[in-house]
Amino acid sequence: MATVFxxxxxxxxxxxxxxxxxxxxHAEDAVPLATALLEGGxxxxxxxxxxxxxFAALRAIKAAVPDMLAGMGTVLTPDQVxxxxxxxxxFAVAPGMNPxxxxxxxxxxxxxxxxxxTPSDVERALEFGCxxxxxxxxxxxxxxxxxxxxxxxxxxxxxRFVPLGGLTAANAGDYLASPLIAAIGxxxxxxxxxxxxxxxxxxxxxxxQAVGIRNSVRAAAKTxx
Length: 225
Fold this sequence. Notes:
With 225 residues, this protein is α/β, with parallel strands linked by helices. The protein has a single domain (7-218), classed as Alpha-Beta Barrel (TIM Barrel), CATH 3.20.20. Helix content is 48%, strand content 14%. The chain is built from 11 helices and 9 strands. The protein has a 4-stranded parallel sheet. Strands 6-7-8 form a 3-stranded parallel sheet. A two-stranded parallel ribbon has the order 4-5. The model has no long low-confidence stretch (mean pLDDT 96).
């Protein structure tokens, strides 16, 4: 089964382990935001299509911060998939599993991760070759314990998850320690309020904290092998 989220890109995201999930209201904030995250060690971001500035923000980041792997989130329609491709998004992410959105991503060759919350969602995603999946809303659905039980019938297929929704510095380590998890999605790294107030210093500190958690988890895993 081919995968919609190509292996090279999946490896990049898994190596990072952290995806900053962002709502940007003003395109002029995009470059300092990306720079602040990079200074903290986070080099993958998802710009959500919840504001009119999202595509302009993506273009600004691609032009000025090439070390940032920038994709788009909250992709809800086939037209938005095409817009993501045209704007140069590295990938697209959806909150749910819309067959029309998935098929459009396949047709135009844009790496795509649909959102899942149930076994039926996973099976629909697998029909389109999607094995790199967003688990949303993670904590509201029951968190890591729920994901372990829900995904058990599909683990032999190499399905990996990026949980989002309710993740914080307090529970990030638990998720990162699970072999089910490719990376964690973190909106707490740079909240909308922090971005609006241009608090780049705090955003860098949050990114650095998340990277420290990731590194600690990986170091502990090595000592067990």
